[in-house]
Model the fold of this input.
Amino acid sequence: MDFKEYKTCSKCLKEFDKTSENFYKSVNSKDGFYYSCKPCDNAIRTNRFKEKLSHNISRICAHCKKHFYAELCRIKTGRGIYCSILCSNKDRICVGKSLGEKNPNATLNKEIVSNIKSDLSNNVKDDVIRKKYKIRASHLCSIKARRIWRHI
Ligand SMILES: [Zn+2]
Ligand SMILES: [Zn+2]
Done:
């Protein structure tokens, strides 16, 4: 009697002896082996690894200055600045605390802000205000919420 079992690789569709020589062991599969043969599985693994590398870009967190990897798609959309949500939240609180012109990043001055505020009270649309004064949405949001320029 022949007790030899065969398993067909789902990738290359070749038939192999169902042994740990030809297939990696898997605790999750019914027969205890991966669905693809070792050479195919190796190829899949290295591909995944390469993909990961090409999509992740090494960055330095804007808050804690730690090294981290951000996905390319996130960086393209202007995110991927902080290593974690924690850091981004911490930085946001910092920005909220700074008051107007004392903040070195401030591109606005009292005059502009009072103009913005009067526009806001005249129900001028956010987009229009942002274009008119060339400010970021988050900046305008902070002014509206009185997190910055509270004293005007
Ligand atoms: Zn194969
Ligand atoms: Zn960080």
Observations:
- The longest strand covers residues 33-37.
